[in-house]
Structures are given as structure tokens and as C-alpha cells.
Amino acid sequence: MTETFDEPSLGRRLVALLIDWVIASFSAVALFGWTGVRFPPDGIRDQLIINGVFVVEVAILVGLTGFSIGKRIMGLRLINPDGRPIGVLRALLRTVLLSLVIPAIVMTDDKRGLHDLAAGSKVVKA
């Protein structure tokens, strides 16, 4: 028997992304503040450091547990076709593509972005 999952709204997904971005920003300041990283970012260097922290944080959490902090707060999870977490390597691919923005904007009818198609993942309600 195949389990069916509800599709979350785009708004819920965007709020989860915003939460994860803010957490990554504060984490970057905590980890790299001695190098002058600020929140809000002051220049491309700060933005790249924050993006790097975002990619690592989200990839590890989503890959191992199926959700990031933002997804957990918003009642979302990320699954593979079997309904399990996608693993760290596929989550890393997905998160790098997500951080490029364009793959996330181009979506299929079932609200899967190119980053989800490339990683073989889907965001569902928890």
C-alpha cells in the first residue's frame, strides 16, 4: 500500500526557508563573528559565509532527520519516494541548488522544484 502525503502551501515552505536562513545567519555570526561577519550581511563575503553555513546546516539536518529547524516548526518534512529522509549527500545537492534560487522557482504541478527533482525528494506536511 502506498502512503499518500499532503502537499504544503508555498507560503508555509517560504516561512520555513526564512526561519532556516535566519538561524544560519545567527549561526554564522556565532561561528565566524571574529572575522567580522555581521547580521544582516554586510557585503558579498558575509552573504557567502552565511550561505555556506545555511547549506551545511540544512543538508545535515534534512539528510539525517527529514527536516530542518524551519521545516519542523512549520510542520513539514522532506522525504524520498520511500517516505524516508533522503540522506546527507542528496540533501547537500538539494540545498546547494536551493541556494541558487532559480531551481527552486521552477516548479512542477505538484510543487516540486528542480532542486527536489534532482535530489529525488519531496516536501510534505509532517
TrEMBL record:
It is found in: Cell membrane. The keyword Transmembrane applies. The keyword Membrane applies. Residues 8-120 form the RDD domain. It is a multi-pass membrane protein. GO terms for cellular component: plasma membrane. The chain crosses the membrane at residues 14-36, 48-70, 91-108. Its main location: membrane. InterPro entries: Pra-immunoreactive, RDD. This is Uncharacterized membrane protein YckC, RDD family. It comes from Aeromicrobium choanae.
